[in-house]
Design brief:
- Helices cover about 30% and strands about 20% of the residues.
- It is of the alpha+beta class.
- Strands 1-4-6-7-8-9 form a six-stranded mixed sheet, sandwiched between helices. Strands 3-2-5 form a three-stranded mixed sheet. Strands 10-11-12 form a three-stranded antiparallel sheet.
């Protein structure tokens, strides 16, 4: 009996390229991933970035590396690579952090690949403001091609897939809940907010305790026999 030997394809975990060109670009990329991971914590949504996404089974040369992406419908667990035929979900949103060395790919090669794969929304962000004009751009897939998302009066871009508005504030890309306008926070920002809340609570408690002590002292004074 003849046995058919199946060819094993190795899907590398790295393309040999550095994660970011500068501290600004690397930190901006990591920040986007952190904000979106926090936003979808506990939900069946996978957020990642700088991960090789393979899109043709059996061909290890067919991959793309999004700086950040969101895939709704699959669990947030650790992956070494992302293979579309294994996951069964095409990321709905991709966000690229554009730099001097990536701007050509970000504006030509990558959008062509993502459009072909069916990525619903594609955003570009230049944290230095040197390589994109405007520095925040967004596109939505329409009949197989990306159409620019019209910015609001503040330059924000609404993502239908995320239910968030992307906007540059204080020199950084931030995300705002479209319904509540609440800004998404990093871990450090959340910790600061909690610390400030605890401080406010402690100060309020101290004021309340001081007022109780004052009232008790006044009551004791009024109850003294020699009071007139």
């Amino acid at each position: 009996m003849n046995l058919v030997k199946l060819k094993t394809v190795d899907y590398p975990e790295s393309d040999g390229c550095p994660m970011g060109e500068t501290d600004d670009h690397r930190e901006a990329m990591v920040r986007v991933i952190e904000l979106l991971k926090n936003h979808y914590h506990g939900q069946k949504v996978y957020v990642s970035g700088d991960l090789l996404v393979y899109y043709e089974q059996g061909n290890a040369q067919k991959f793309v590396v999004p700086d950040a992406f969101v895939a709704k419908g699959i669990a947030q667990s650790r992956r070494r690579v992302y293979r579309l035929w294994v996951e069964g979900v095409v990321p709905q949103v991709v966000i690229e952090t554009t730099s001097k060395s990536t701007r050509i790919k970000d504006t030509t090669d990558k959008p062509q690949i993502f459009a072909k794969l069916g990525v619903c929304e594609y955003f570009l962000h230049d944290p230095t403001g040197e390589y994109l004009e405007p520095s925040l751009q967004g596109y939505r897939l329409h009949h197989g091609e990306y159409v620019a998302i019209e910015p609001d009066s503040q330059g924000g871009l609404f993502s239908k897939e995320l239910g968030l508005v992307l906007r540059i504030t204080e020199g950084e890309l931030n995300f705002f809940d479209a319904k509540s306008s609440r800004r998404l926070l990093t871990n450090a920002e959340s910790a600061n907010v909690e610390a400030e809340a605890r401080q406010v609570e402690a100060e309020a408690r101290q004021r309340a305790e001081a007022e109780v002590a004052r009232l008790q002292a006044e009551l004791a004074r009024l109850q003294r026999p020699d009071h007139c």
